[in-house]
Design brief:
Elements lengths: L45 H10 L40 E2 L5 E2 L8 H8 L1 H15 L7 H13 L4 H16 L6 H18 L12 E6 L6 H14 L4 E6 L6 H11 L3 E3 L7 H14 L4 E6 L6 H18 L6 E7 L5 H13 L3 E5 L9 H9 L3 E5 L7 E3 L2 H9 L2
Helix pairs in contact: 2-13, 3-4, 4-5, 5-6, 6-12, 6-13, 7-8, 9-10, 11-12
The structure holds guanosine-5'-triphosphate (GTP) and magnesium ion (MG).
Length: about 425
């Protein structure tokens, strides 16, 4: 399935109303258990073992944390210095607990973190808020004509027809109640309304009480699934979780290699089979391995393209069935990855996958460098789905937890 679906037709004006965590790079030492791969597997057990055993062992001497050895040189004993009183350990004000019960690094945003988000969303901000600001400049009063122009700006900024109609209706009511006296009041009201819609469906993924937590990642080709998985693997590992990846995209030759390369960065094991193998067999082995190795989080990468859309959806269903059979109740989260730069295509993709593949959360990637970031509001609101993460660049730290307040602030702050 291509992600080049014809963009949804823009409706005409008037119609609608009358219209982290810091990376540590360390890994806990674990025994290199061999997964109990069932004989039901359709491919040789070697497949998964080759990845876990020889290519990317999670543990073993080569991955032990290096410690500096004392030099073997005899030196004159120095007089013992007076021991300094040990400083009181600083207590971090904000600590979180992960699924393993260990403390996660502080989550207080680093200075400049918000500024980086703002600069990543620059083009969306220009398209949406920039145009609204230009429209309101010098407007003494707000009337129906101004709202009609706002409506057009919202639609052409990919906020989506349904959400735009609703927003404008609400603004009309506020205008009727004399709440929109000037441009600033209108701007404030619009920000509030967008924020309340984003917040209505917002929640973060909860890993508590599920072990292994199984995260299935789906979406059409090229949207950033594998990259997102790589970034997530880094984060989860850095916060003390044991992660395992499953390369269930067997359609494309380089897909597993790409996942293995991401896995290697955070020393995470990857279960893979040969190209063209049955993705469900990969998932089956991965579930077995996740349980046998006492993994905290299993992340499953899937193909974004098969010969037909129907094949793809059937495959997603089959993968889900296999996961659920091996780990009852799983997958615990099905993340649909959407490329924000495709604008309205993201809406049709969400519709398709939500119906067929049990999507529970969204990831909007490539928000850097696109003016179509309004799509975040459209997909979340129209499909009542939480946006879990946003991608604002290609590197590991560019995957961020989605925070509706931070997102709207970044768009509306001057
Ligand atoms: N600028 C930017 N690029 C991104 C982001 N996320 C992913 N990419 C890039 O998008 C391209 C495609 O990413 P992949 O992770 O391979 O996408 P995929 O969905 O796994 O693709 P298939 O395996 O073909 O289905 C890569 O070049 C990534 O570096 C992002 O947030 N911002
Ligand atoms: Mg991929």
């Amino acid at each position: 399935m291509e992600n080049q679906d014809a963009p949804e037709k823009k409706e005409k004006k008037g119609f609608f109303r009358g219209l982290f965590s810091k990376l540590t790079g360390t890994v806990s030492s674990e025994t290199n258990e061999t997964p109990e791969v069932s004989e039901e597997t359709s491919s040789p057990p070697d497949d998964s073992e080759s990845a876990s055993g020889s290519e990317l062992p999670l543990s073993g001497p080569e991955f032990e944390v290096e410690t500096e050895l004392e030099p073997c040189v005899e030196t004159e004993p120095e007089p013992e210095p007076e021991p300094e009183p040990a400083p009181e350990p600083e207590i971090e004000p904000e600590q979180q607990w992960n699924t393993s019960g260990t403390v996660v690094e502080e989550t207080t945003p680093k200075p400049g973190f918000f500024e980086r988000l703002k600069s990543s969303l620059k083009r969306t901000k220009e398209s949406l808020v920039g145009r609204i600001d230009s429209l309101l400049l010098g407007k003494k009063t707000i009337d129906a004509d101004v709202l009609e122009e706002i409506e057009e700006i919202l639609i052409t900024s990919d906020i989506g027809v349904k959400t735009t109609v609703e927003l404008i209706r609400t603004l009309e009511q506020r205008l009727g109640r004399n709440e929109l006296k000037d441009g600033e009041a209108l701007r404030g009201a619009l920000k509030e309304e967008i924020l309340s819609r984003l917040s209505a469906h917002h929640s973060q993924m909860s890993l508590v009480g599920k072990k292994p937590f199984v995260l299935l990642v789906i979406g059409v080709n090229g949207v950033g699934k594998t990259t997102t998985i790589g970034k997530l693997a880094s984060r989860f590992t850095a916060s003390g979780n044991k992660v395992l990846l499953a390369a269930a995209d067997t359609f494309r030759a380089a897909a597993a290699e790409q996942l293995v390369a991401w896995g290697a960065r955070s020393r995470v094991d990857v279960i893979r089979h040969k190209e063209g193998a049955d993705p469900s067999a990969v998932v089956f082995d991965a579930c077995k391995a996740a349980v046998a190795r006492d993994v905290d989080i299993l992340i499953v990468d899937t193909a974004g393209r098969l010969h037909t859309k129907v094949n793809l959806m059937e495959e997603m269903k089959k993968i889900r069935r296999v996961i659920d059979r091996e780990i009852p109740g799983a997958p615990h989260e099905t993340l649909l990855v959407l490329d924000a730069a495709t604008g309205q295509n993201a809406v049709s993709q969400t519709r398709l996958f939500k119906e067929a593949a049990g999507v529970t959360g969204l990831v909007l990637t490539k928000l850097d460098g696109t003016a179509k970031g309004g799509i975040v509001v459209a997909v979340s609101h129209e499909f009542a789905l939480p946006v879990r993460y946003i991608g604002v660049g290609e590197s590991v730290e560019d995957l961020r937890d989605f925070d509706p307040q931070e997102f709207t602030d970044a768009l509306f702050q001057p």
